[in-house]
């Protein structure tokens, strides 16, 4: 597999990826001629860059007769994301606080409010529900970490 950083270093390939990303959001493929029309570059140039993107597995192609339809495969870009995120979040305080509010807007105790449940003599949740809540808590913590990473990335763009 080609070096992913070298593949996306080319501005034309990044433009093609951007066009493909717009199609992903509409859940649609795009033909070479449509890419040529949008980017206003020659068909041979687009085809050459699509070949590089195919070899890097950043695009998939579906052939229908003489036509080829391309779609984005963003999975290889995760390697870049994994490499860059520590740099983007370095030096940023991305602490996220969560408050639980009632429908009327009043603050109510949440999972982190240990003292709110200290005076209860009875079991708050049955054992199965407590185990499920613990799993959900772990999933929420993973999601919180992901949000922190995204907030750090967003702050760099401001």
UniProtKB/TrEMBL annotation:
PROSITE patterns: HTH_ARSR_2. InterPro entries: ArsR-like_HTH (IPR011991), HTH_ArsR_DNA-bd_dom (IPR001845), HTH_MetalResp_TranReg (IPR051081), WH-like_DNA-bd_sf (IPR036388), WH_DNA-bd_sf (IPR036390). CDD domains: HTH_ARSR (cd00090). It comes from the Bacteria. Keywords: DNA-binding, Transcription, Transcription regulation. Pfam families: HTH_20. Residues 1-95 form the HTH arsR-type domain. PANTHER family: TRANSCRIPTIONAL REGULATOR, ARSR FAMILY (PTHR33154), TRANSCRIPTIONAL REPRESSOR SDPR (PTHR33154:SF33). This is ArsR family transcriptional regulator. The lineage of its organism: Bacteria, Bacillati, Actinomycetota, Actinomycetes, Micrococcales.
